[in-house]
Specification:
The protein has helices at 57-61, 202-211, 223-230, and strands spanning 11-22, 28-29, 36-37, 42-48, 52-56, 79-80, 85-88, 99-101, 106-111, 117-121, 125-130, 135-141, 145-155, 161-162, 169-171, 179-180, 193-195, 199-200, 215-218, 259-262. By secondary structure, it is mainly beta. The protein folds into three domains: 16-48 and 127-153, OB fold (Dihydrolipoamide Acetyltransferase, E2P) (Beta Barrel); 52-121, OB fold (Dihydrolipoamide Acetyltransferase, E2P) (Beta Barrel), CATH 2.40.50; 157-277, no CATH class. It has a five-stranded mixed sheet, with no helix packed on it. It has a four-stranded antiparallel sheet with strand order 1-13-12-3, with no helix packed on it.
């Protein structure tokens, strides 16, 4: 069994933590300096441009590219619904009529009389950046994000898998040396962050998925169980500066707890200096 060891990680009862929350592309900041925010509150928002669909109307209508404007029902900038008519010809014999339908719901982005192409774009996808922690906005970075400050207890882990998440913390064991088993995981732990002991078994992982816990913090896990959970070999490289806190996972809930933060491979007491209050 492989093992890794914690190189002096931080466990402190009270500290001030600042989290820099940044959009991946320019957008709008929704809060102001000094405002109090919640972890699940949107603090900034951006729009990811929708997918572009090119259509060669000239070919479909059988006309020259510079003639397509004569046949268009929609013009650049117009909204369009899926299967709505974009263009049509007007033959003398009506059964020779050709209609070109939109393959998507979106907007007519552009029309080219040179190539005879029309570009359609799907609606933008809204990306919301959440506060991540309950706290106060101490800095606003225009069009990019914010810095959130909070007074909290801090327990630093060696590594984690999953994305951003949050929830009420529940201590599931009575001792840091205790192994987290399925019997520790009860139905009332749904959407909670569960703190276990020195080790978690594969059966307990399955139970955590069944219950729907939002996160797990434990002392260790067998590498084969982690591989089975993920469906691939993680190939962990331990590096303190790259440890990320509880973050939201993009995988379906049925696949795994949304956050899983083991302290080592194998058994190890989980945060023996920390006391649960």
């Amino acid at each position: 069994m492989a093992h890794s060891y914690t190189p002096g990680l931080t466990v402190t009862e009270q500290t001030v933590v600042r989290r820099r929350r940044m959009l991946s592309l320019p957008g709008s900041v929704l809060v102001t300096t000094g405002e109090t925010v919640r972890a699940n509150q949107a603090v900034a928002r951006a729009e990811l441009p929708g997918k572009v669909y090119p259509m060669n109307l000239a070919n479909q209508l059988g006309v020259a590219p510079d003639e397509i404007h004569e046949y268009l029902i929609k013009k650049a900038g117009d909204p369009v619904q899926k299967d709505e008519i974009l263009a049509e010809n007007k033959p003398l014999i009506k059964w020779l009529k050709t209609e070109v339908l939109s393959p998507i719901t979106g907007v007519v982005e552009s029309i080219s009389p040179v190539t005879g192409q029309v570009l359609l774009r799907e609606p933008p996808r809204v990306l919301e950046l959440l506060g991540y922690v309950d706290g106060r906005i101490v800095e606003v970075i225009p069009q990019q994000g914010v810095v959130v400050e909070t007074d909290c207890s801090l327990v630093q882990g060696i590594f984690g898998i999953g994305g951003e998440t949050w929830g009420e913390i529940v201590i599931a064991v009575t001792s840091p040396d205790e192994v987290l088993t399925p019997r520790h995981l009860t139905a009332d732990m749904k959407d909670k962050v569960v703190v276990g002991g020195s080790f978690i078994s594969s059966d307990a992982l399955a139970r955590a998925k069944e219950v729907g816990v939002t996160g797990l913090v434990i002392g260790g896990i067998h590498d084969k169980d982690l591989r089975a959970l993920l469906g691939y070999d993680l190939g962990v490289a331990i590096k303190r500066s790259r440890f990320s806190p509880l973050m939201q996972d993009n995988r379906p809930r049925s696949q795994a707890p949304r956050k899983f933060a083991p302290a080592s491979f194998g058994r190890r007491s989980s945060f023996p200096k920390a006391q649960a209050h």
